[in-house]
Design brief:
single chain; alpha+beta; three-stranded antiparallel beta sheet; 2 helices; 19% strand
């Protein structure tokens, strides 16, 4: 939020929960949860290499970070 005010603090997701919502949740929403949403052998995956680890970096470092590399269908579509 722009103000920095936390609304519904008890409803916050942990970082692993937020990452799962973006990956596994995204696959589930598109009915692809049996083939996408995990980084595991045999699973289809697009990949983004970020500047900072979203699970361990300070929150301030995550604001406005950019992707260093993006692969879609095994092809590089962005390479910083």
């Amino acid at each position: 939020m722009r103000t920095g005010t936390v609304v519904g603090e008890r409803e916050r997701l942990t970082r692993p929960q937020a990452l799962a919502a973006l990956t596994q949740g995204g696959a589930w929403v598109t009915f692809a949860e049996r083939e996408r949403g995990r980084l595991a052998p045999g699973w289809a995956a697009d990949l983004a290499v970020l500047e900072h680890d979203p699970l361990t970096a300070p929150l301030e470092a995550l604001v406005g970070q950019t992707a260093r590399l993006t692969l879609v269908g095994g092809e590089i579509v962005h390479d910083a």
